[in-house]
Amino acid sequence: MPEGDTIHKLAARLRPALVGSTLDRFDAPRLTGSPPAVGSEITAVDAVGKHLLIAFADGTTLETHLRMTGSWHLYRTGERWRKPAHLARVVLGCGETIAVCFSAPVVRSHRDDGRRSLAHLGPDLCGPATDDTLIDEVLERLVQVAEPGTALAEVLLDQRIASGIGNVYANDLCWIHRLHPATPIEGVDTDTRRQLYATAATLLRANLSTQRRTTVPGGLAVYGRARRPCRRCGTPIRSGRVGLNARATWWCPRCQPEHR
Ligand SMILES: [Zn+2]
User: Fold this and answer.
1) pTM of the prediction?
2) Domain 132-251 class?
3) From 5, 85, 179, 205, which residue has the greatest number of CB atoms within 10 Å?
4) How far is the CA of 227 from the centre of ligand 1 (A)?
5) Ligand 1 mean position to 230 CA, how many Å?
6) HEC letters along 33-61
7) Would you name the residues annotated as active-site residues?
8) Domain with CATH 1.10.8.50 in the chain
9) Looking at the domain that runs over 4-118, which CATH code has it been given?
């Protein structure tokens, strides 16, 4: 699943190419909802959590969620696509520019700005300002949504609590705060919860302007680093499956001892 920062960077790339231009072609073979009218102007491209929203002047908002497989490409008219046409889920033509979304599992349209339909999402940690009030809301949602025994890594990934954290950040946040990813959330006190989400917001926003995602100096802390030495203590990083969703997870057995 892409991290929230990926979708924000994507929106920043698509925005100048699309906003202000007029839709002259729209194909979306598996669209749920009604298509925007050809001839409508594109008025906004936004990321909300991991959802990309494209708004049209006729009141339609197109939502795509890329999950693991989806991607958006920009082409000039006549340019060869880098993926096969049968994988195209959305084709937006605007004059000389063609934006193509490949393999997205979710392609929906809304007759509002789309945000109302995404109201179940927790605050977006990639947003411009992350203050105490926003973290307060996150912690309140956590209490409402998470069962006390839920693994910390799974809570961090729950987009109903806060949106934007994917598996890279969930794993690295646990390492940064020296917590085993399987720690039941009831064993994590409020101060620590607050620090975890504050760190998440700082890292997500710091990575909006970088080419390569880093969570610690030099790269990632534990994500994808099985058997390589812990950046703090040198112990080989362990990997396994954690939580009800059995997500791939990495941790340092010494810095992040299992919760007892
Ligand atoms: Zn370590």
Assistant:
1) 0.76
2) mainly alpha
3) 5
4) 12
5) 5
6) CCCCCCCCEEEEEEEECCEEEEEECCCCE
7) 2-3, 50
8) 132-251
9) 3.20.190.10
